Known about the structure:
The protein has about 250 residues and is an alpha/beta fold. It has helices spanning about 5-25, 50-55, 60-70, 85-95, 110-120, 135-140, 160-165, 165-170, 190-200, 225-235; strands at about 75-80, 100-105, 125-130, 150-155, 175-180, 205-210, 240-250.
Amino acid sequence: MTQDLAQLVQSAIAMRRLQLNTLLFQRLQGVVRYGPLAGMQLIEASSWGNDKAAKLLGFYEHELMAAMVPALGPDKVFIDIGAADGFYAVGALHAQLAHRTIAFELTDAGRSVIGDTAARLGVQDRIEIHGACTEGSLQQALHGLDRRQLVLLCDVEGAEFEIFSDAVLAMLAGSQVFIEIHDRTAEGPAQYAALKARAQRWFRLEEISKGGRNPYHYRELHDLDDTDHWLVCSEGRDPDQRWLALRPIHD
Length: 251
């Protein structure tokens, strides 16, 4: 396959995924139907990604959710670095998986969607929305909080290796931390190895890998053909997508 043809195929796949997202959003009226965040009302506006169908059907990042949800609870503070449209940051509040959320999102568009979604669900008084996450901004946001009550998620497209310095990891000691890993650059594997080496001082490490999905369990997809069933499952991820869970050494 030539490079031009490969790009054309990828564009066609992306377009069909977008069409399926729109179809499922309309069919489910934007309400998450399954999973820990069931009942959450999404708004149509989006600043990031092409994955509303997976979110609405409750299997978006289900490997991460299976590890992270047990760490959450109504007494927890949820920190979301790279919060995008606020699916987790707002959803955790709506599902009573946290009593407060602190969201860091670099883009104006993302912060706007987070704010609108929080207001739609009536949880705007329990969420703080910040811009870029730095050591200083994180330290300020966490001031006075019991680290044992914190659950932190980070998805920042490779900037995780810069954010999680020794100082930040020490600051988070006692918390539960989940980091989406983006190490497919030339220097990525070395950066990931260095992150794990730093984190071992304060945390037990657990790597979470992506797993399978079965789209035929969902009656909402009954009229789709096989190709569309599997495209709904696609989150457009790399072959070796994984997350790193940091568990406190002393629980």
